[in-house]
Write a structure and sequence with these properties.
This protein has eleven helices and eight strands. The chain is an alpha/beta fold. Helix 3 packs across helix 4 and helix 6 packs across helix 7. The radius of gyration is 18 Å and the shape is globular.
C-alpha cells in the first residue's frame, strides 16, 4: 500500500465559462500534475491509490470531471448529436458542426489551472484525454511543463482500425439502469483489457457502482464522442512542439493500435516512447501496471 497522502474534498471551479468538479492529492506546494480522463470517464476513474502513488513521487495531483460528465457542467441545450449522420457527412467531405470541440475541452483544463492559480503544470492525459493534453500543449505551451500522452493517437488517419469488438463499445450507448450499467462496465473491461493481465471483477463493479451513483450521463458522452470523431489531426502542429513528452501505450491495445503511439513519439521532437507489454486500452482497473507507469511519469517530470 502507498503511504497516506492528503486528499482534498471535492470542490468546484469556475473555468472557461463553466463549472468543473475536481479534487487533489498531495502537497499543494509540490509541482502540479493535471490528470485528464478519456471519453465519458469521471474523475473517479483515476483510482485514489494511483493518484496517491503519483503524489508520493513529488506531485500535487489534480483530477477533474471533463465537461458533460460526472458533476461538471452539462450541455443539454446543445442537443444530442446524431453520430451516424455525422459520420456520413464526414465521409462525404462535408463540414460538420458539433456542440463543442476538443479545443474547447482543452481550454476547460487551462481554465481549471487558472482557477487554481497555477501558472503551469505537468499534464497527463489518457485516450481522449491524451488528445486533449496534446491540444493544450499546442495552443498553451507556456502552461505545460511536461506532456504525458497515454493510450492516445493524434488523429492521423491511415492506421489499422480498432478491433470490431472494441469499436462496437464506442458506438453502443451504455445501459442506463444500474444493474445493466455495472454488467456492461465489466464486459467492457474484459474487451479493453487485453489477454495478459487478470481482471478483478470486484474492483470494476465497485467503480461502476460509484460512477452510476455519482451520475452517468449518456447524452454528454455522445457530445464528447462527436468532438473526438470530428477533431482534425494534430500531426503538423505536434511536429513543432518543444515540450518534453512521454508517450505510453499498450502492446495489445484493441482500440488504438500501438502504431498510433509510435507515430506520436516519432512526430514530437525528442519524445520518449514506452510500450508496455500486454497492456490493452486499460489502466484504471489494472493496478499491476501502476508502479511502472508511475515510475515512468516521475522520471519524466523530474
Amino acid at each position: 500500500m502507498t503511504q497516506k497522502v492528503p486528499h482534498s474534498n471535492q470542490a468546484f471551479a469556475q473555468a472557461n465559462g463553466i463549472e468543473i468538479a475536481y479534487d487533489t492529492f498531495g502537497d499543494p506546494s509540490a509541482p502540479p500534475l493535471l490528470l485528464i480522463m478519456g471519453l465519458g470517464g469521471q474523475l473517479i476513474n483515476w483510482h485514489e491509490e494511483f493518484c496517491a502513488q503519483l503524489a508520493t513521487r513529488g506531485h500535487w495531483v489534480i483530477r477533474f470531471d471533463n465537461r458533460d460528465v460526472g458533476l461538471s457542467t452539462k450541455f443539454d441545450k446543445t442537443g444530442v448529436p446524431d453520430i451516424p449522420q455525422l459520420t456520413e457527412a464526414q465521409e462525404r467531405g462535408e463540414e460538420v458542426q458539433t456542440p463543442y470541440t476538443l479545443r474547447d475541452m482543452a481550454n476547460d483544463a487551462i481554465g481549471l489551472l487558472d482557477a487554481l492559480e497555477t501558472d503551469s503544470a505537468h499534464v497527463l492525459g489518457t485516450s481522449m484525454g491524451g488528445r486533449i493534453a496534446q491540444i493544450m500543449a499546442i495552443h498553451h505551451p507556456q502552461r505545460i511543463r511536461t506532456l504525458t500522452s497515454i493510450m492516445a493517437s493524434m488523429g492521423e488517419p491511415g492506421f489499422p482500425p480498432p478491433k470490431p469488438e472494441a469499436l462496437s463499445l464506442l458506438l453502443m450507448p451504455a445501459p442506463t439502469d444500474r444493474v445493466g450499467y455495472i454488467e456492461n462496465t465489466v464486459q467492457t473491461s474484459y474487451v479493453l483489457n487485453g489477454p495478459w493481465f487478470p481482471i478483478d471483477e470486484l474492483r470494476i463493479r465497485e467503480r461502476a457502482e460509484r460512477a452510476f451513483d455519482r451520475g452517468i450521463y449518456p447524452d454528454g458522452v455522445a457530445r464528447q464522442f462527436a468532438a473526438l470523431m470530428t477533431a482534425q489531426s494534430s500531426k503538423i502542429a505536434l511536429g513543432s512542439l518543444r515540450i518534453p513528452t512521454l508517450v505510453i501505450h499498450g502492446s495489445d491495445d484493441p482500440l488504438i493500435p500501438k502504431e498510433c503511439a509510435m507515430d506520436v513519439a516519432n512526430t514530437i521532437p525528442g519524445a520518449k516512447l514506452l510500450i508496455i507489454q500486454g497492456m490493452g486500452h486499460a489502466l484504471a482497473d489494472i493496478p499491476q501496471l501502476w508502479p511502472q507507469v508511475v515510475d515512468a511519469v516521475a522520471r519524466h517530470t523530474a
